[in-house]
Amino acid sequence: MNEGEEAPTTKPIKFPSNKRQHTQKHSWGETFQELKTYQAKNGNCNVPFRKEGLGKLGQWVTKQKRNRNQLTIEQINELDSIGFNWKKLDQRNEDRWMEIYKRLQDYRRKKGDCQVIALYKPDLVLGGWVSYQRGLNKKGKLSEDRFKLLSRLDFIWHLKDPGDRKQPLHDKAFKDMYDRLVAFHQTNGHCLVPFTYKDDKKLAGWVANQRRIYDDGEMKAERIMMLENIGFVWKVDVYSAEASLSQRHWDEMFKELSRFVDENGHSQVTVHNTPDGYNEKLGMWVGMQRMLHRQGDVSLTPERKKRLESIDFWWGSPGNNHRDEPYLDKIWKRLFRKLNRYRKKRGHTLVSVSDDKRIKMLENIGFVWKVDAYSAIASLSQRHWDEMFEELSRFKDENGHSQVPVNNTPDRYNEKLGTWVSMQRMLHRQGHVSLTPERKKRIESIGFWWGSPDNNHQDEPFLNKL
155, 317, 368, 398: which is deepest, by most CB within 10 A? Predict the structure, then answer.
């Protein structure tokens, strides 16, 4: 440095300090003390978010809930020690709403209605709360769940009464709806208003609401009597199946099925192609009864089951009659008893068919009136067996063996011959009664091989016989 020059000024170096961190910790402790004072005065830590005189205490409380994961264990413990409510605002509001709702329930039990005046001295909060709910509903801001809860208490949403001012509003509202139900009853003969009732959508909801109030034990005896006087059903389809819409539908379909049985001689209504002249849903309804029977469903009551069986209803599906052999035997025995009574009365069993309509119906489907019941030739199943046996005999003569392939029967033979031959082998293995000794003898007479094509060695004794 040259003579006469001033020495440069040296600035002191500033090191970072923890003053900010210390202030934050101290600030949290100070605010906590403010909350502690608030809790001692008010009995809780539910500080309003913004309230004059409390500074930013409400905002600080909300921040602790939001940032709980960032607090130290000591801070959480300190908050817990004064009963800090960690629930967020939405949940607190819901709890508070339900608390006042229960107070309204108590009011209704004592007074018989929900008409709490705004300046109700025993509970000023309740009066203001009731008025506030009406305002929210009018603006469309009341949730559906809360609307339903209040409606269950016969809550009056509109205070202006266009009718008799001397009549209490809750009675007026009930009477109006009751009169609409009476009109419905006069038109339909019952009080079972469907939820899809377009002519009066509000009536269906009101009817359902009366049942809920009744179930809760909160309905006045006077109203119970009024409703029961017009045949009101408290337990739909359980308390009185006779008055139930579903029972009425069941009765209508049963009547239709009875007509079908009378005209056709059986209850096998096809599901998708119900004959013309009958309810188009009869087939589906019949199928449903069978399904309910298989599942043991309680909706197929013993009384309904008994009525179906009284018209010889077949519980098995059309293609599976063997599943209901015990029931078939029951029908057979009942018809046998009828025939026996006929024999005792007339001295013979030659039952005539005098109904020309029924005769024509039977003849239209190729019914055979004169049948040799003791001749296997008359049996359709025996005829089919004979036809297939002749086809097999031809196959054996032309090919020198009876090993007809199942899936690739030669074109010049019946396409089902392979399947039929395989069926005879299966019946033989199972010892089934349908393979009679006579049929077995006929098959063996043409050198039939009982073993399958790939397992000829299994029938060596029979091979030796051949």
Answer: 155
CA distances in angstroms from 182 to 176, 177, 187, 204, 221, listed in the order given? 10, 9, 9, 13, 18
Model confidence at 206: pLDDT above 80: yes
Cα 402 to Cα 421, 444, 462: the distances in Å are 8, 10, 14
The DSSP symbol for 121 reads G
Lowest model confidence (mean pLDDT) among 6-15, 247-256, 373-382: 6-15
CA dihedral 49, 54, 55, 60 (to 10 degrees): -50
Distance CA 464, CA 90 (A): 92
Distances (CA, A) of 57 to 31, 45, 306, 389, 399: 7, 10, 75, 101, 105
Look at residues 115, 155, 117 and name the one whose alpha carbon lies nearest to residue 137: 155
Residue-by-residue DSSP string for 294-325: HHT-TTS-HHHHHHHHTTT---S-TT-GGGGH
Please answer whether residues 409 and 358 qualify as being in contact, where contact means their C-beta atoms are separated by less than 8 angstroms: no
Residue 164 has pLDDT above 50, yes or no: no
Identify the CA nearest to 85 among candidates 53, 122, 124, 38.
Answer: 38
7: which 2 tokens?
């020495």
Q: Is 165 helix (H, G, I), strand (E, B) or coil?
A: coil
Pair 417, 404: CB distance under 8 Å: yes
Evaluate if residue 14 carries a pLDDT over 80.
no
Q: CB-based burial of residue 155 (10 Å sphere; 0-12 exposed, 13-18 middle, 19+ buried)?
A: buried
Mean of pLDDT over the chain: 76
- DSSP codes joined into one string, 22-64: HHHHHHHHHHHHHHHHHHHHHSS----SS-TTSTTHHHHHHHH
- Given a cut of 70, whether residue 238 has pLDDT beyond it is no
Residues making up the chain, counted from first to last: 466
22-61 pLDDT tens trace: 344 448 888 899 889 988 988 888 887 677 777 788 888 8
Q: What is the pTM of this model?
A: 0.28
Structure tokens at 151: 């409606």
Contacts by 120-128, CB closer than 8 A, 24 or more apart = 125/100, 126/100
